[in-house]
Amino acid sequence: MSPVAEKDRAVVQLLLGAGTCPRCVLRFCSVGSQLLYRHPQQDLLKDLQEFLRNSQEQEGTECLDVSDPPCKRLRLEHQEEGAAELNHNGATPQLPPAGDTGNAGNAGNAALDSSAGRVCNVCLGILQEFCEPDFVKKVCQKVHSADYQFTSFVFSVSLPPQLSVRERAAWLGVKQQMRNLGLPLAKDDIVQLKEAYKWIIHPQLAEELGVPADGKSLFEVSVVFAHPETDEECHFLATACPDCFKPAKNKQSVFTRMAVIKALERIKEEDFLKHFPCPPSSPKNLCDALEIQCNNGAVFVAGRYNKYSRNLPQTPWIIDGERKLESSVEELISEHLMAEFKADSFNFSSSGREDVDVRTLGNGRPFAMELVNPRRIRFSAQEMKRLQQAINDSSDKIQVRDLQLVTRSAIGRMKEGEEEKTKTYSALIWTDKAIQREDIAFLDDIKELRLEQKTPLRVLHRRPLAVRCRLIHSMSSEYIDQHHFRLHLRTQAGTYIKEFVHGDFGRTKPNIGSLLNRTADILELDVESVDVDWPPSLAD
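The line above is the sequence of tRNA pseudouridine synthase Pus10; the predicted structure tokens follow.
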């Protein structure tokens, strides 16, 4: 049974004569059967040849059965060049005289012969050599050597932008041919190159890798194609549609695939025909598979950390390229996670942050780490517990608890709590004037004290100037001596505690100094609890 309909005979003959591969011919004939594209290209070529041969053997007076427009004889006049190619001004082959089956048959055979062994003038070989088992094995070798864990895969392709130009040229050639025959053709009917390629390559990759193809998979296998021989074929579009080609950051060339597609949508058909042959000519060389890449979707790990050192920043402390302290909370945790997950990089986030000289006690501060492109993604609960223990054994400055795998969406709960929840602190305070127990007792009775805090001077270099209203929900004092006491505070998240104590030169009102009517300063500060109910607690 023929893979194409009788109405497509003229299209088949035109494209094969121009050097189009059998699979691209199927695309332009709107063949939607995935199985057909997976047949060996030589078999497809033979099927198309047989189709043309059988068509030419029919009676010359036979008409196509089409309802609108009326049927017309499908006979292509044999061109002197023998390949039925269109020239630069868009001229199309003419129909042969009625009943002239001999010349049409010769043209059909010549078209088939000229297509065999040539690089496709539309796909530049992507639906030819790059569908073969040898290339599939090359891709799979790359995947296996990268040593990823995965249970499915998604396959993506990056095509040279000039393929869009060549596809437009081929389509215009077909369109003109069909117009001459009085037959309709919609551009949307053409099967897209990427779609056809994936129809062919997916089952081969799935069999070789031993896992199914899944459009929602987090593991991506990608191939980047290039074709240097035809790189400049897009350049005429920059003259015709200059607004479509503007320099952009991180783009090596203005001739991106999207820019080319945008220009092709704008350029007039007659202008296109002046600059590009329809259908396009066959190149000398195949596409190059520049890169075969693998990438795993990010894995997210969450937990809580305690910080016991007053000389440890949360994140690396680097000023003007100079490291101020040798380590950080982020680095002490990430060092182990990066090694175990074999990730390329990471992103650390937490529910708020403490200063370098502030300890975090109690149940700790919630944190999350995004591990980018991890090779290993599957960890049992016991393995996560051993990883947590390895982090805790590596340093006496921090401890981690409730270490677990989480989803990206779950991290949002941590960030919500950063501003909405409460936090509990313990501050060691000094006063310049002597105090007695009764001088600070009134602090215990203060509830829901409203503060107005201008952006502190110490963070003004990285935060915008603003006045923030914050609440001190409750306080309790603990007398130590005439110049020292400890204050326990339960506050709204985002309150600057140090500034609430010393006033920050009047930028926080009221403050402990103004409440006590004397100068006050903070000597030590501990975070005793961060009241965010995330991540879930795990049994020891």
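Note on the example: The radius of gyration is 36 Å. The chain has 17 helices and 15 strands.
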